[in-house]
Here is the input.
Amino acid sequence: MKYEAVIGLEVHAQLLTETKIFCGCSTKFGSEPNTQTCPICIGMPGVLPVLNKKALEFVIKTGLAMNCRISPYSRFARKNYFYPDLPKGYQISQYELPICEHGFIEIIVNGEMKKIGITRIHIEEDAGKNIHEGTGNYSFVDLNRTGVPLMEIVSEPDIRSPQEASEYMKKLRAILRYLGVCDGNMEQGSLRCDANVSIRPEGQKEYGTRTEVKNINSFKFVEKALEYEIKRQIKVLEEGGKVIQETRLWDSTKGITESMRGKEEAHDYRYFPEPDLVPMIVERKWIDEIKSSLPELPDVKRERFVSEYGLPEYDADLLTDEKPLADWYEEATASYSLSVSGPKIISNWVKGELTRLLNEESKTIEECPLRPEQLADMLRLIDKGTISGKIAKIVFEEMYKTGKDAEEIVKEKGLIQITDESAIEKAVDEVISKNPKEVARFKAGEEKLMGFFVGQVMKLTKGKANPQMVNELLKKKLS
Ligand code: ADP
Ligand code: MG
Ligand code: ZN
Here is the structure.
């Protein structure tokens, strides 16, 4: 029997506000444990929470970017449970009336666009952190994270494969980063993903019983954990068993999921409206203001890169993944508007050499030591014939490493292209006289040896000879 996977993701994203959701404590990461707390976030009796407006704005922004309906009326709810990292004994979240509903985002799978529904996005507070490692026989609790604003983005069960799940996560992260509402760092936990997955025989309409896989903390693991869980469920069914609804933990070192607990139901949490916070009434005017402040988002930018610069979809997709990279590209293209093929040439340099050099040092484009105009200046040197395309790679790397301009490097290193015909002729003659066997074979019709001769001349001139002139001279002399 063939099975199909059905996947829905619940993503928690930490909002990039300076202060916590209901108090003025800092949200800075990496401080000494319990130094960023106050009576409100650690839930002392008699304190009252006050909503951080910025956090709400960020969630509305996200909702709009993901095509959601923004509820004019929504409210907070208490989700009650005990855990040592939750001193209040309840988490302030949203339940019946979330702030955003009924949206979607688009992903591209195997060259085709697919819409993934967003059921809801709600706002809530984070809990603290229990520390069990390196603490001997004790466990510690760090409450710095308690009350840090989160949003939970819940997808419809529209995802059909681990690959789609990973594309969905990537697109979601790109949108959050474009908006500047979350840094999207899965390894540090500012973006976390719980994956709900079930399987059903292909062609069946009803969904199967799902499990929820937690603790997925990298993009690679989204795919790995789901692949494992789908195989496990298939095996259970094929052995005549039943999948039980439960929460499972992904263990990345073992590469497996393990049962953690039976699935809790909403009523287990005794949700009820939060009495300490008034319901939120969001005015249309404010929503419209936020809407008009939205930046151009990845999908729209990608389409524009295709139509405006004539780039292939593939290039446009890569270049618009991160806004700073797209900006760098556009600046370079703007300062190099010589030819119609300019945008594609720049795309090749950005995707190729620039990305390679950044990756070598694990740098992001924001840390790129090279200015976009420097690439444009270097390309003009190629156009003028000052340097060859081959030498340009050396110049580019040198520019990147020293910060110097192309022209300066070319002068300093004596990389100017040789266009003096007599100098090239000398090199061509030398190559011909040193390789009589190849010459004979060429003359006997082995034309592909042309590449060999060009290579030899370039080697002799340290890559500096003008390639067209080398080709022409060789043709003339060998015919
Ligand atoms: P809970 O809050 O209890 O985890 P929700 O109803 O909010 O439950 O659903 C959580 C996620 O599970 C959603 O992303 C939804 O798309 C997904 N989901 C629901 N049913 C299934 C199913 N049968 N198979 C896979 N995913 C599912
Ligand atoms: Mg859940
Ligand atoms: Zn506080």
